[in-house]
Amino acid sequence: MTPDSLSSDFTPERCQYRTTTGRQCCLPIVDPNSSFCARHASSQPNESENFLAPLTARACRFQNAAGVNYSLSALYALLAQGRISPRRATALAYISSLLLRTLPAIDTDLYPHAGKPGFSPTGKPPQQSATNVDHADQVDAGDAALESEHPAKSQKPN
Q1: How far apart are CA 8 and CA 112, in angstroms?
Q2: Per DSSP, what are the bridge partners of residue 14?
Q3: Is-contact 11 18, C-beta < 8 A?
Q4: Residue 51 vs residues 36, 60, 69, 80, 149: alpha-carbon distances, Å
Q5: pLDDT digit of tens for each residue in the chain (158 aa)?
Q6: What integer pLDDT is reported at residue 112 of this predicted model?
């Protein structure tokens, strides 16, 4: 819809909802902070709703293709239910595609521990002292637990 196609009876005091033919809703705005009448305000997706839990419940920290797939499935369900706007869903789906593209690089990473607590930027543990050895063992044990918890990595067929 272009600005030229807007009808001349446009008034800001009326609901800003437009039909597919371009006609403006005739009901008045109920809340001054909203642009819609009570009927259309309730039909608009709430952009401030937090979807962290449903989108990340089975995402496995987005470290494998199955985790990203679970998140995309949850995103699809939210969109189909009308709980998330198509624009927001598009942005999240695009981010998911970027995550999927980085999975092969994660599998062949030369420095898999880089950026984790207790490791240098190159992924090497700092100079070992008596207290640091215990901490490094705990970090390695935590990594082993995560890997055993989520053994499925994004594997390419040989």
Answers
A1: 61
A2: 28
A3: no
A4: 24, 16, 16, 14, 24
A5: 455 545 455 567 888 888 888 888 888 888 777 788 888 877 666 666 788 999 999 888 888 999 999 999 999 999 998 888 888 999 999 999 999 999 998 888 888 877 778 887 777 777 765 555 555 455 555 555 445 444 555 444 44
A6: 81
DSSP string, 77-100: HHHHTT-S-HHHHHHHHHHHHHHH
Length of the chain: 158
Q: Pull the structure tokens for residue 76.
A: 């699809």
Tokens of 132: 């640091």
Q: Give me the residue label for tokens 């699809």.
A: 76
For residue 113, give the amino acid letter: H
Count of alpha carbons within 13 Å of 35, Cβ hemisphere only?
A: 8
Hey, what are 133's tokens? 């050895």
Residue with tokens 């642009």: 35
Cα angle value 138/139/145 (rounded, 5°): 90
Residue 109 structure tokens: 């990473």
